[in-house]
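Hi support team,

I submitted a single chain yesterday and got back a structure, but I'm not sure I'm reading the token output correctly. Could someone confirm the output below corresponds to the sequence I sent? I've pasted both exactly as they appear in my results page.

Thanks,
R.
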Amino acid sequence: MRINGFSGMDIDSMVTSLMTAKKLPFNKLTQQKQILEWTRDSYRELNSKIVQLSDKLQNMNRSESMNTQQSTVTGNTTAVKADANANASSTPMSVVVSKLATKSSMQTASGLQTAGTTPTDATKKTTLEQIAGSGASGTYELNINDKTITFLKTDTIEAVIGRINSENANVSASFDEISGKFSITAKDYGTNNNIKLTGADKQPKDSTLMELFGITSSDVKVAEAGEVTVTNTTDNSTKTYKPDGDSINVNGVKLTLLETTGITGPAKITTQSDPAKAIETIKSFVDTYNELLGLMNTKMGEQKYRDFPPLTADQRKDMKEDEIKQWEEKAKSGLLKNDSILSSAVSSMRMVISSKLGDLSSIGITTGQYYENGKLKIDETKLKAALTTAPEKVVNIFQGSSSVDKAKSLFSQLRSELNAPLEMFVKKVGTSKVDTDGSFTLNADSIMGKQLKNYNSRITEFERKMKDAETRYYKQFTAMETAMSKYQSQSSSLTSYLQ
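Hi R., thanks for writing in. Yes, this is the structure output for that exact sequence:
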């Protein structure tokens, strides 16, 4: 808190005027920092949009996203689920599930109880010591599928289950609180995944977990194959399958076996062409591609308003909210005008499309007018017709038909080209190649991160110097006032002598 002296001068106003001149280079520095931050935010937005398209391309490159075949289940709809792949046959089938495949498993014969004169039903919070009683061992072992898992007597059943399920023994443990039964089941089907239980003959015998629970190797149930009969209802030819799992593939249709057909009767499968899913995938791709391409072209073509630098704190004080908003819209415009990273990305994207334009045009996908800068357009009628009459051709354009063609497919090539601008953004801006929403922390060691550090350091130093200068001005004015006060005192004294 400063108080003006007695000279009649407005020292605060004078110091403020002097400091205003000194703040000019400081304001320039803060404006440069603001422009850098705005530019970085624009890059970050574009990085997220590119990652979104790249992720979408990866998902779309899976065969099921362009599947033009649709299987329908009638009759017994609860026993079988049918999913056709792109090459599924239209052969109608009747499916009878006589037996489901089983997984290897073992279970306590009865519900677990606590030891003692008045046993109580065990819960997930019951400890091994409570089940064993006074003769409890300090530790218990489970030797299963060549894995040895050790438990403390103070471990609860819930803890035991958690340990078993996390030890990569290819089994899953569970406890039914209604029946009180503890069970272990193989994670996978098949005789190769039968549970191997060892250690029940170790001494002392009550040191093994399965001995405590009353389970031995003889209680292990081995996996069994299922039995499914499929009939081609066109010519009544029949084939029986013995699946070692919960599904089989017949005529390009994956049949997931849910329950035996029993007296309800067989499940009937019909497969026909349905381009709806593929059309949805292609439309989604075109929309996302156009959005990204449009955003890049907009950023590169924005007008730059050099007469609208970022506002300083002093300027904001005298402006309304709407005025600030309109000013900053112009100040942010053109920050990425003719940007080399965006220019290269747009060129690469359009080159991939151009290389496929002949094939794309034949299925109803074309580029717009020259002034639309490569925007894609879809003739849905033509696309639907192509997917109905020649679905393999359409799928091959976007996904490829073999491991060799997949690398040359539209989705793969475009995703590969998008990796280049992402790499540049990571190096320059400090973004992430997996950030889809701009929520990741930017790398401070990137090129722009280091520039920002430099600005912050220079601004801090400049603020210190301005503070010192302001203090020095006040000291100088104070000294001047002190001198003037002495002068006035001496003048008054001399005048009194002369009177």
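A quick pointer for reading it: The longest strand covers residues 69-75. Let us know if anything else looks off.

Best,
Support desk
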